[in-house]
Amino acid sequence: MLGKTFGMPALVAAMALAACSGGGSGAGGLYGGPPPTKPPSSNTPIQEMVAGRPGFVNPANHRTLYFLSSDTPAGGTCTGGCLSVWPPIAPSSGARAQNGFTIITRSDGTGKQWAHAGHPLYMFSGDTGPDQANGEGIPFAGGTWHVARP
């Protein structure tokens, strides 16, 4: 009787503990990718595995970040309705440029945005979770959307 009463809660607790321990291998981070390049103290983009290769993600939701090849350091081409499909990743209050990322003022005057290698960074509304790259290769405004990679 004791085994039937406490067996399932003990099994659930053991499974939860094993999941939190990471299996002890030390290889691989959240969602099967490598550990982040730095602990996210702000919302500075971090590096994880994206579609089998290192890429940059939003640390808040681990969604893939993209850039538009035709964008310039002076600002992004994606404005207006484009932003509902390609939302920009804005820096959190007090965030500072670091690790090759910069903070730019959007060319449409709607606020600040993270950029990498001179390109403003966006997420894609067609990605519903981590490790997705559904926006890769989509043509737009004389350019093409690409996963932001190191």
Textual characterization of the structure:
- With 150 residues, the chain is of the alpha+beta class.
- The protein has one domain.
- The protein is built from 2 helices and 8 strands, in the order H-E-E-E-H-E-E-E-E-E.
- It has helices spanning 2-21, 82-85, and strands at 46-50, 53-57, 66-68, 101-105, 112-116, 119-120, 139-140, 143-147.
- Strands 3-8-7 form a 3-stranded antiparallel β-sheet, with no helix packed on it. It has a 3-stranded antiparallel β-sheet with strand order 4-5-6, with no helix packed on it.
- The protein is globular and about 35 Å long.
Short description:
The chain is 16% helix and 21% strand. The chain is an alpha+beta fold and 150 residues long.
Task: Identify the notable features of this structure and list them briefly.
8 strands, 150 residues, three-stranded antiparallel β-sheet, 2 helices, single chain, disordered N terminus, alpha+beta
- Number of structurally distinct domains: 1
| H-E order | HEEEHEEEEE
Number of strands: 8
Mean pLDDT score:
76
Low-confidence stretches: 1-40
Number of helices: 2
Summarize the helices and strands and which ones pair or pack.
Layout: H1 2-21, E1 46-50, E2 53-57, E3 66-68, H2 82-85, E4 101-105, E5 112-116, E6 119-120, E7 139-140, E8 143-147
